[in-house]
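Quick one: structure tokens for this chain, please?
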Amino acid sequence: MAAAPKVGFVSLGCPKALVDSEGILTRLRAEGYAISPSYDGADLVVVNTCGFIESAVRESLDAIGEALEENGRVIVTGCLGAKGDVVRQTHPKVLAVTGPHALQEVMTAVHEHLPKPHDPFSDLVPPQGIKLTPRHYAYLKISEGCNHRCTFCIIPSLRGDLVSRPIGEVMREAENLVKAGVKELLVISQDTSAYGVDLKYRTGFWGGRPLRARMGDLAAALGELGVWVRLHYVYPYPHVDDVIPLMAEGKILPYIDVPFQHASRRILKLMKRPASGEDNLGRIRAWRGICPDITIRSTFIAGFPGETEDEFRELLDFLDEAELDRVGCFAYSPVQGAKANDLPGALSNEVREERRARLMRLQEKISARRLERHVGRTIKVLVDEVSAGGAVARSSADAPEIDGVVHIEDASELEPGEWAQVKILSSDAHDLRARLAPGKSKRRVAAQAS
């Protein structure tokens, strides 16, 4: 039998793009293609690009150029592909270009440039598909696109309006992941709290029972699977309050990622942010009243066009009072095609960056105070990496790659994917240091299906 054609793959961008990459890889393997770990071993290369901000555009164009130089046969997909002819003008030798979440278009291009006869013996893949994350956690994308028109964002023009996945389909994927040994599901979308709006909260079926396509119902169902469930990209609508009791009851992780973006109502209106009129401080207090251990993560933009020093100080005051656990901040970036670029009062790069740095200095102090509360406690963690010097794990407060970690001393006998009970010894502005709790047994993750 002839060797299977090999496809190389480069995946850039956010977790939503990562899920798209996983879908393409799953289809490639299901159709019998082999995945090459190097350019020179591949018959062609697929590059999944990001096009959200200018630095991401440059990174994507550089990655395409490298693939062309090293291999010569390149198919481009992802958000950059939706930005007109940028790819073809820069790299005219690419074989094909598609936009984001374009699985069928990518496969059509692969079939055209690298045909492969059907072979049922090589078409078998695990039911959970091909994943790029470590074996013990996985992203679960519940919808695509966005109905909002935030003035700093071009995601709707790249990925389209909101399209929610049927809830039965989402739950079946989640079940397959858990059966394969996944211990943490990270729920992602562009707007997780809007899940099901486009479906009018249509009732689907899971395990023979009816289930509405709505965030609260989905979170409750995922909470029955016995793994960590972490919610990302949740807008602060009133109905989000419904999931906080699930956190208090231990059904899903007491963690919520809410991109507030600013505190000034005038700036939020200029941003055209949904829920811009909500009392976010009041909502945060209410959430903590229901679930005192909740971890709240958020992102903000400093130096938005027209932002005054007083409005920026209003944002700093908000952070002081809200005491958010995890915060990321970006200096405003004039993304090509974003409506905010036309607003008056554009600030200089120096002012934007100075405000970003000032915000993060304040947040470091807040984060250090929040983390110090854990010193002396014994907590459950999920191990990510192990070396001779110890292990790196995450608590319920830590999403992979964006939050802090728990460094465990003298724990080289652990393995990635294990649960462990640890006692917190010290903290800084980002991470915790710990040792294995005496007398606490570890539970090893069950062997996964191959």
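The two ends are 23 Å apart (CA to CA).
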